[in-house]
């Protein structure tokens, strides 16, 4: 008899809430198909414990909320002298974790596949050494993936830096023209060591057996076609791409505890009347912009539900947990009293998926983190795009120019988004014909998301195809 009838799939996660949440959802997908999985998470060494404390607590929360999923905390690497740059510190941690991942893979009786987050790309080495087929799980858009796959070729065949090109359009296969200034900060300057590291990462995607993408084909048809046709990397074959999304948390917050007070508040508001503002797990606007938002909302006259975070003070402390915001100090005098009947301000966190799905929610001011975009699309809510970091500016381009799901908050790339702009765009989405058109598109996006996830829908079929290609099913 086969001593290992059920080889395990190891999912290798990075430390970032927006990456961990879809990884947990992927684990559920495997379990639902009877494939045993374990999520291997890096453990920050003591020298970086402060820095990673908020993501470490997110891991603990996800673990507690998902008792049926096995988590494996890989031993912390030796890292006595952490890089002061937050992003490099994270990448160092992931790279230094490769040996512990290899030891873990070797300790298991049988591993069917390693599925790794793109940030953990160095773990391809562990997979190769352990003789395990490796796949990438890409937790952002297919459009980002298409652009990033193309970057090594772009850098090899051109000169100059995005940072010097202003808004000049970049023409990459599969995506609309991207203003150079909307590329991620990490690749703005080829002399920057981070740029070399990231472009190296993108080049390594080609080594994977396949790429699972948390998207559904309908919203990114052009990018997905380019990825399938292999035109993103001239002259080199690209691995097969499986659009298995959207993988988002299904109303778990509600199932786990008491219903959040903001949902009861939404119950009392008219249909599609509330503007929801939330900037992901780490995003926050400056103190000056908080005041601009408040004035803009005030002047728009619309209802709102607003998640306020303490503004970041020091970019080096970007990932560090921030104290709760002092609303009296941060918001304009009298704002809370004036808007008491039509607004609710939450400190730090909202049950976003439930809020977006609530009938009272009519628009979403978002930083364009990919999970947020998927959650809004599948809930049928138009977006007001205010990108902040990572690949959010790219997602903004796709949301506005390709998907036609939203509008831009002008000033996102300048010193300030002004109150007049907030008011103007809120009114546009909530009151104008253009807003009606966006809602029509989003109604379709919502239907297509439901179709993608239906029993034999495209995303479920893509996952089945992946299982078959990777010999996890027949
Ligand atoms: N999120 C939430 N409440 C908040 C902020 C974020 O539930 O107040 C969730 C959100 O629903 C999404 C994730 O955290 O699933 C954030 O992921 P995204 O990709 O949008 O942004 P990131 O945090 O990675 O920048």
Automatic annotation (TrEMBL):
<dbReference type="GO" id="GO:0035251">
    <property type="term" value="F:UDP-glucosyltransferase activity"/>
</dbReference>
<keyword id="KW-0328">Glycosyltransferase</keyword>
<dbReference type="Pfam" id="PF00201">
    <property type="entry name" value="UDPGT"/>
</dbReference>
<dbReference type="InterPro" id="IPR050481">
    <property type="entry name" value="UDP-glycosyltransf_plant"/>
</dbReference>
<keyword id="KW-0808">Transferase</keyword>
<dbReference type="GO" id="GO:0016757">
    <property type="term" value="F:glycosyltransferase activity"/>
</dbReference>
<dbReference type="InterPro" id="IPR002213">
    <property type="entry name" value="UDP_glucos_trans"/>
</dbReference>
<comment type="similarity">
    <text>Belongs to the UDP-glycosyltransferase family.</text>
</comment>
<dbReference type="InterPro" id="IPR035595">
    <property type="entry name" value="UDP_glycos_trans_CS"/>
</dbReference>
<protein>
    <recommendedName>
        <fullName>Glycosyltransferase</fullName>
        <ecNumber>2.4.1.-</ecNumber>
    </recommendedName>
</protein>
């Amino acid at each position: 008899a086969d001593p290992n009838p059920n080889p395990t799939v190891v999912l290798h996660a990075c430390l970032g809430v927006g990456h961990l949440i879809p990884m947990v959802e992927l684990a559920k997908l495997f379990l639902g198909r009877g494939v045993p999985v374990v999520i291997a998470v890096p453990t920050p060494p003591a020298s970086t414990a402060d820095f990673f404390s908020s993501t470490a607590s997110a891991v603990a929360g996800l673990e507690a909320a998902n008792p049926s999923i096995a988590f494996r905390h890989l031993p912390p690497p030796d890292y006595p002298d952490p890089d002061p740059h937050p992003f490099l510190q994270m990448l160092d941690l992931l790279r230094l974790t490769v040996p512990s991942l290899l030891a873990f893979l070797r300790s298991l009786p049988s591993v069917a596949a390693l599925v790794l987050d793109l940030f953990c790309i160095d773990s391809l080495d562990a997979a190769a050494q352990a003789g395990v087929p490796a796949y990438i799980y890409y937790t952002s858009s297919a459009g980002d993936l298409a652009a990033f796959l193309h970057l090594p070729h772009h850098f090899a065949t051109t000169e100059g830096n995005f940072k010097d090109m202003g808004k000049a359009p970049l023409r990459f296969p599969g995506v609309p023209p991207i203003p150079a200034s909307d590329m991620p900060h990490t690749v703005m300057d080829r002399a920057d060591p981070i740029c070399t590291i990231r472009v190296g990462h993108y080049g390594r995607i080609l080594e994977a057996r396949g790429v699972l993408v948390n998207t559904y084909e309908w919203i990114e048809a052009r990018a997905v076609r380019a990825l399938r046709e292999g035109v993103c990397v001239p002259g080199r074959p690209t691995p097969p791409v499986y659009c298995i999304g959207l993988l988002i948390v299904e109303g778990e917050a509600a199932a786990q505890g008491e219903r959040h007070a903001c949902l009861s508040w939404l119950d009392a508001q008219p249909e599609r009347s509330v503007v929801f503002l939330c900037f992901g797990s780490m995003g926050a606007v400056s103190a000056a912009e908080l005041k601009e938002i408040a004035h803009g909302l005030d002047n728009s006259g619309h209802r709102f539900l607003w998640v306020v975070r303490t503004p970041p003070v020091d970019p080096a402390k970007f990932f560090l947990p921030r104290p709760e915001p002092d609303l009296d100090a941060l918001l304009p005098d009298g704002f809370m009293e004036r808007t008491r009947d039509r607004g609710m301000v939450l400190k730090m966190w909202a049950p976003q998926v439930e809020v977006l799905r609530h009938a009272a929610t009519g628009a979403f001011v978002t930083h364009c983190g990919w999970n947020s975009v998927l959650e809004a699309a599948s809930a049928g809510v138009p977006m007001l795009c205010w990108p902040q970091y990572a690949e959010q500016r790219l997602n903004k381009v796709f949301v506005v120019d390709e998907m036609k799901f939203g509008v831009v908050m002008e000033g996102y790339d300048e010193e300030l988004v002004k109150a007049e702009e907030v008011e103007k765009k809120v009114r546009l989405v909530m009151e104008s014909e253009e807003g009606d058109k966006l809602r029509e598109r989003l109604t379709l996006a919502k239907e297509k998301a439901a179709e993608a996830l239906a029993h034999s829908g495209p995303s479920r079929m893509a996952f089945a195809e992946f299982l078959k290609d990777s010999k996890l099913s027949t």
